[in-house]
Amino acid sequence: MSAFAVPHDPLRPPPSPGLGRGIALALLAHGLLLLGLTAGLNWRSQIEPAIEAELWAAVPVAAAPREETPPPETQPEPPKPVPEPPRPDPSIEQQQRLQEQREAEIAAEREKKKKLEDKKRAEEEAERKQREQELKEKKAREERLKAEKEKKEEQARQEKAKQEKLDKAKQEKAKQDAKKAEAALEKQRQENLRRIQGMAGASGAPNATGTALQSAGPSSSYAGRIKARIRPNIIYSDSGLGNPVAEAELRVAPDGNIISSRLLKSSGDSEWDKAVLRAIEKTETLPRDVDGRVPPHLIIRFQPRE
């Protein structure tokens, strides 16, 4: 081992054995392959095809007379050979076919690309129309919401104005009621003052507690006088089953004429009730009270045995 040799690193992978030999063999094989292909192409282009043909007739035919050769001095000049057209090179045909195939592939690729572009444009157009439709719908929705909001605000303003009007009307009514109450109180106060001022001319008894100048109700003996006027007109066969009480209500004119009468409370004896009502209708007129007046409304109790 040389003193200047680099020691082998145990962690580095060992070099591949025979790497240079393998590369050389690969290059040699490729060179031989190229030579073989070149020789084959040259052989095909230089060898002319051999064509042979035999003509046979179906029926025997005599041969034509042989052509006599004219003397040399008169022999026509032989025709010049017509050059054969150049035969197409197979490599050129292959290149043409490859070129045509390539052009067909390019055309197909262009057609495919065009279709893809048309499809992409159609999709973009559809997306654009969809976006426009969405924008229109969004705008319509916003306008509808705005209109609804404005309508609600208008309704709220109308309700507020209506409520303010009602509140104002209530306040006015309250003021009017307060004025009416004050006027009623003032009227009552004035009446009380007039009543107090007119007590000097009152006609009541010394122990009377009323405030009017004269009593408005009937006297204590007036009910007996009315019964005395009505009772003679009662026609009733006493059954002796008790002493039922019938209450009758009378409406009387200022001159004492009975306007109407009705049974206010039944006695339980229908015959006695009917007899009392018939007697009131038959009486027609009631007597005046001690003060010369007739009360307009009377309630009188009637019993068979009083």
From TrEMBL:
Region (Disordered), start-end ranges: 62-221
Compositional bias annotation for Basic and acidic residues: 99-194
Pfam families reported in the protein's UniProt record: TonB_2
Keywords per UniProt: Cell cycle, Cell division, Membrane, Transmembrane, Transmembrane helix
A GO cellular-component term linked to this record: membrane
Primary localization class, coarse: membrane
Residue ranges with Polar residues bias: 206-221
Protein name per the record: Cell division and transport-associated protein TolA
InterPro entries to which the protein is assigned, alphabetical: Tol-Pal_TolA, TonB/TolA_C
Gene3D superfamilies membership: 3.30.1150.10
Location of this chain's protein in the cell: Membrane
Pro residues composition-biased segments: 71-89
Gene Ontology terms, MF aspect: toxin transmembrane transporter activity
NCBIfam families, per database record: tolA_full (TIGR02794), tonB_Cterm (TIGR01352)
Membrane association type: Single-pass membrane protein
Keyword Transmembrane helix attached: yes
GO biological process terms on file: bacteriocin transport; cell division
